[in-house]
Design goal:
Layout lengths: L2 H4 L18 H19 L4 E2 L5 E3 H5 L5 H5 L3 E3 L5 E4 L4 H9 L8 E10 L11 E10 L4 H17 L5 E7 H11 L6 H8 L2 H4 L1 H8 L2 E3 L5 E3 L5 H14 L12 H4 L2 H19 L7 E3 L13 E7 L9 E6 L13 E7 H10 L12 E3 L7 H13 L4 E3 L7 H11 L3 E4 L2 H6 L1 E6 H8 L5 H6 L4 E5 L3 H8 L4
Parallel strand pairs: 1-5, 7-10, 14-15, 14-16
Antiparallel strand pairs: 2-4, 3-4, 5-6, 6-13, 7-11, 8-9, 11-12, 12-13, 16-17, 17-18
Helix pairs in contact: 2-6, 6-13, 7-11, 7-13
Length: 481
């Protein structure tokens, strides 16, 4: 092998790891725009920003009895000083660690946080190992007013994003726990029953009852095995569903004697009624927030209220903004109980929904004006224009490529989606004039045609103005004044 071949650099394949993705400028700009709107909505309700570390100690995320096997379930690794650590897979445990470490923190603590989390899940369509969440929580109170505030914040966020048709459905795990108790179903079978009840909105009451009994066949003919519950257990579940869920809408029927026999059920109904009252006084109507006693969520996590948000025009997108009450928030870190309630929003899923609903667009670029460069000797004049536009708050860039060909520069602006281009050479500068080419108007006119090169060069969609009127005219064209 020759010396030249030995010194030849080894090329690396530009591959993306499975379960991860890049965000092109248009998607990232849309994400940031959406997040800014969400921030406005939750800050309007007094939530404060908190940013916790992306990497946590293993026992913070897994408890003190973690093992190497459990650490392997996360993006875990051995860090400096031989410490076991991992990338966070959610925000709640980091919030608990933060609260436990801040004894002087004023409670209740209302916080929001957004950022990336990492999970070693099997990637698939719409499922990634790195994704962004936006969480809101109220920590340090058992008052149902906090639960109502979380629901109101979820509603306010959807409204702030311009979504008209959505529903926040909420319930209490205590009610379903009471149902299991009242129906006589063994507690160890409760989680399986709840998972079936959670399907009510999708498959209907008859199919739910069938799955609780001997099973059923789905639309494709595949067999879905049942739980084979005793007939009297299933009859009691059916009675509960008909009286309290099916067709009742927001109104609760919580006064039945058979439900009053369960302390858990009574407590859950009372809490839901409190939340209903608080929401009503806050002006949150049943059009946007409604009781649904089949909501399950987080069987081993939530201790009381649970809620989730769906878009009525895009039900196939699933839950958008969901959560519940967890009254054992900091037990991993201290003996003192600190209850909490919160909700988490899937940023990328919601962004996809907003694009589908045409509530947000994918901006092709951030620049509103491209300053073209025709004469390198007049570069100070071009830079003076750039400085003036930016000082006026108009996002602008100067063409920094190598070509002096004007058509190529205009084509560059067109591909990026820059709406306006400034054109000036020595003759224009000497005459005190500036030419503005309205690329956005030209693109709109030429949409659907094959002769874009013609309008790129055309005299239409452009005007010559005095140099001193540049900023005011640009602002008019951009509808900034």
């Amino acid at each position: 092998m020759g010396k030249k071949e030995q010194n030849k650099p080894q090329r690396v394949k530009p591959q993306l790891l499975k379960g991860f993705r890049d965000y092109p400028p248009d998607q990232q700009a849309a994400r940031e725009k959406m997040i800014a709107r969400i921030q406005q909505a939750v800050e309007l309700m007094g939530f404060q920003p908190l940013q916790t570390a992306s990497v946590e100690a293993a026992d913070v995320l897994l408890g003190s009895h973690y093992s190497s096997d459990s650490l392997a379930e996360l993006f875990g690794f051995k860090g400096p000083d031989d410490a076991d650590m991992a990338l966070r897979y959610e925000f709640t445990l980091s919030l608990a660690r933060y609260v436990a470490s801040q004894p002087d923190l004023p409670l209740p603590f209302r916080r929001y946080q957004y950022g990336n989390v990492w999970r070693v899940d099997k990637p698939g369509p719409g499922r990634f190992r790195e994704f962004m969440q936006f969480d809101i929580d109220i920590v340090g109170t058992r008052n149902m007013l906090a639960d109502a505030e979380i629901i109101a914040a979820m509603v306010g966020t959807m409204e702030h994003l311009g979504i008209e048709r959505f529903k926040v459905r909420y319930s209490s795990r205590k009610i379903l726990n009471g149902l299991i108790e009242w129906a006589g179903i063994p507690p160890q079978r409760g989680p399986d029953v709840m998972r079936v009840l959670d399907k009510l909105q999708r498959i209907g009451l008859d199919n739910v009852l069938a799955e609780l009994s001997g099973g059923r066949s789905d639309d494709s003919g595949d067999r879905i095995e049942g739980l084979y519950l005793e007939d009297n257990w299933v009859l009691r579940v059916k009675e509960f569903m008909i009286q309290n869920v099916v067709g009742t809408g927001r109104s609760l029927v919580g006064s039945h004697d058979y439900l009053q026999s369960s302390p858990s059920c009574r407590e859950g109904f009372d809490e839901i009624l409190q939340i209903e009252s608080h929401l009503s006084h806050m002006g949150v109507t049943s059009d946007h927030a409604e009781v649904d006693l089949t909501i399950v969520r987080g069987l081993g996590y939530y201790t009381g209220t649970v809620f989730e948000t769906t878009l009525l025009d895009l039900p196939e997108f699933g839950s958008m903004f969901s959560g519940g009450r967890y009254d054992n928030l900091v037990e991993r870190f201290q003996s003192q109980s600190v209850p909490g309630v919160g909700s988490s929003l899937g940023v990328d899923r919601l962004l996809a929904a907003l694009i589908e609903l045409k509530k947000i667009s994918l901006p092709r670029c951030t620049s509103k004006v491209l300053v073209t460069v025709m004469d390198r000797d007049r570069l100070p004049d071009y830079l003076a224009i750039l400085k003036e536009l930016r000082a006026a708050g108009i996002a602008s860039e100067i063409f920094s490529g190598d070509t002096k060909n004007l058509t190529r520069q205009i084509r560059y602006a067109d591909k990026l989606g820059v709406p306006l281009a400034i054109i000036a050479g020595t003759n224009e500068f000497d005459a005190g004039l500036i030419r503005i080419k309205n690329l956005a108007a030209g693109a709109s006119k030429a949409e659907g045609t094959s002769d874009r090169e013609d309008w790129l060069k055309a005299e239409g969609f452009q005007e010559d103005i005095p140099r001193g009127q540049l900023v005011s005219r640009i602002r008019q064209l951009l509808s900034l004044e």
